[in-house]
Structure formats: C-alpha cells, structure tokens
Amino acid sequence: MRTTTGWQSLDPATNALTRVTVERRDLRPDDIAVRIDFCGVCHSDLHRIHGMLGEKDLVPGHEATGVVLATGPEVTGFAVGERVAIGTIIDSCGECAMCEAGQENYCYQRPTTTYGGTDRVDGTPTQGAYSREYVLREKFAFHLPDGLDPAAAAPLLCAGVSVWEPLRAAGVGPGSRVAVAGLGGLGHIAVKLATALGAEVTVLSRSTAKERDALALGATGLLVTTDDSQIAAARGRFDLVLDTVPADHELTPFIGMLGLDATLCVLGNPLLAGPRLWELGAGRKKLTSSGTGGLRQTVEMLEFCAEHGITADVEIVPSSEIETALDRLAEGDVHYRFVLDMSDLDA
C-alpha cells in the first residue's frame, strides 16, 4: 500500500479541511502513479463537502495536472516524468453502449468518479486529487499537451470539458449564436471555447459589472437579465444557451431567447426544477444538461485548447489555504477558478 498526504473534509458544516495521510493502492499492471502538482477547486467540491450527495470524509479534487511517478508493468501509453492530467472519471465498465461510444461519463453501470466513488476491483472508496499523489488506470489519464500551463490547464479537466461537450453536440461553429449565462469558472471557459469555434457569443448576467471581462474573453456583448426590455429584444436570438449559473434561478427567460430547434443546456445547477413543457414546445426547443466528458471528447478538447492557447483564468493558492479558497468561492469571490498548488504538502 502506498501512502501520500492530502486534505480531507471531516465536518460537512464547515469549509475547513484537515491534513491527513491518504492510502493509495499498490500499482496494478495497467496503473500509473501521478504526483499531483495542481488541482482546481470546483464548485461541485463545495457542494459535496457540505453533503449534497450524503457523503462523508471526502478528499475532494477532480481536475488535476502533474507528472508520472511510476508505471505498472503493462502500461504502454505513459512514461515516468511525462506530464499528465486527471479528470472526473477514473474507471467505467468498458462494455456498455456508452463506453463503446467513448462516453464513459454516461456508463450504464455508473462511472467510477475520482472521489466519492467506489473502486471497481476492491470496493474501496475513491479519494480525490486534493492530495500529493494519485493512482489510476492509464486509460483514464490524459497527456497534457505541450504549451498548456499545468496550473491554468487543470480546470479544463472538469469545467472545460463540461462546456465543450454541449458545444460540440450542438454543432457550434461559424455563424452560431451562443449565449453563456454566468461568467464564472465554467462560463469564462465557455466564452473562450465558443469564440474559438467561430460563434458569436453573448454573456448573460444580472448586471453590467462583468461586461469588460466578457468582451476581453471574446464575447461580442453582454445582456442584462434583470432588464426586461433586453430580455424581450433577445427573443428567439440564440442557437444555444449554456446556463452555468450555480444558484437556483428561473429558466423561462433563457428559454424565451432560444430560436427554432435551439437548445438550453443547464450546467451550473442541474438539480433545478424543469420548465413547463409548453415553454419548450413553442419552437421545438430542447432542454438538456451535460455530465463532464468522455475520454474521446476530453482528448479532443485538450488538443483544441493547445492549438488555440486556451486555459482557465486562475488564482493559484497554496493547498493549505483551501478553507479560504472555499469560503471565497461560496461568496463568488474568485477570478475565475482557484487552483491549489500541492507542493506545500511536501513540507
């Protein structure tokens, strides 16, 4: 059994995490061991720390980059010292229709998540990448392309692919009209990706406070959702609305902005109650969501980001400051993604 050090949530009533020893399995034949250098702080980490899914004693973290430390005897795709990235999924059944289609994130037998899951071999709970070392099957690790900064690239492994899949599913490209609701961890990457795909992008926000940022990221404008006249003027305007708002909110205004056969994809809070069906029926509109990404789409997204120089806008903090980062994240005080520097766990 290997051991490493990480940060564990022991009390769902607080954002305080405790430094603990984390057990990692001895390498199986197709495993790699990864030194985690950077790990993004996802809003879902905050939700799950506070018991959204009824879990306890979590070591969170599912968007990480690092370096290969060791390989099992059957590993052929990675070598010690190579740059590597880890996302939200570390295993799946490999046999169902979803896995065969490269959508392991929708595995019919449920994918094994990077933390809060159950190992498919020995039944132990998975503990995440708020730790200095991680062990996983090489199939579920990704080469980090040259040119991508490892800290700024870490959030691509969750936030990035979560918006990439619906953009690709909607066929977004030159001439597409895309709206991004919420300019946070997911939203700012969505603006960058949609713009690079050739779309005309509008940010939807409750005020004009982020207009300068929206334009700097590549959007052509910002629509204020608290202004009824602007909402009315945007009726039927968009082919795709990516809703990245993490709080409870009303979907009806966004549905009204959809054109014929257009799509509203709810990403920030997929537990929201759905609209009345007639609201979708007026224009054959579609309501959907997305569960991060499969292996094929994740590789495609990383290659696209490397080609276009796309990473997240991040604030890098020592991992020992995770409680402060979570407190600030809960208040929306981050520009636009916290990333933990895990090197302080060596001390």
Structure description:
The chain is an alpha/beta fold. It is built from eleven helices and 17 strands. The strands form four sheets. Strands 3, 4, 5, 8, 9, 16 and 17 form a seven-stranded mixed beta sheet that branches. Helix 4 crosses helix 5. It is globular. The relative contact order is 0.16.
- Helical content class: 10-25%
Q: Biggest β-sheet: count, sense, barrel? A: 7 strands, mixed
- First-residue to last-residue Cα separation: 22 Å
β-strand amount = 25-35%
Number of strands: 17
Taken in chain order, the helices and strands follow as EEEHEEEHEEEHHEHEHEHEHEHEHEHE
Please count the helical segments.
11
CATH superfamily of the largest domain: Medium-chain alcohol dehydrogenases, catalytic domain
- What would the CATH topology of the largest domain be? Quinone Oxidoreductase, Chain A, domain 1
Topology:
Layout: E1 2-8, E2 18-24, E3 31-40, H1 43-49, E4 64-71, E5 83-86, E6 89-91, H2 97-100, E7 112-113, E8 133-137, E9 141-143, H3 150-153, H4 159-169, E10 177-181, H5 185-196, E11 200-205, H6 211-217, E12 221-224, H7 228-233, E13 238-243, H8 252-256, E14 258-266, H9 277-281, E15 286-288, H10 295-308, E16 314-318, H11 322-330, E17 337-341
Parallel strand pairs: 10-11, 10-13, 11-12, 13-14, 14-15, 16-17
Antiparallel strand pairs: 1-2, 3-4, 3-8, 3-17, 4-5, 5-9, 6-7
Helix pairs in contact: 4-5
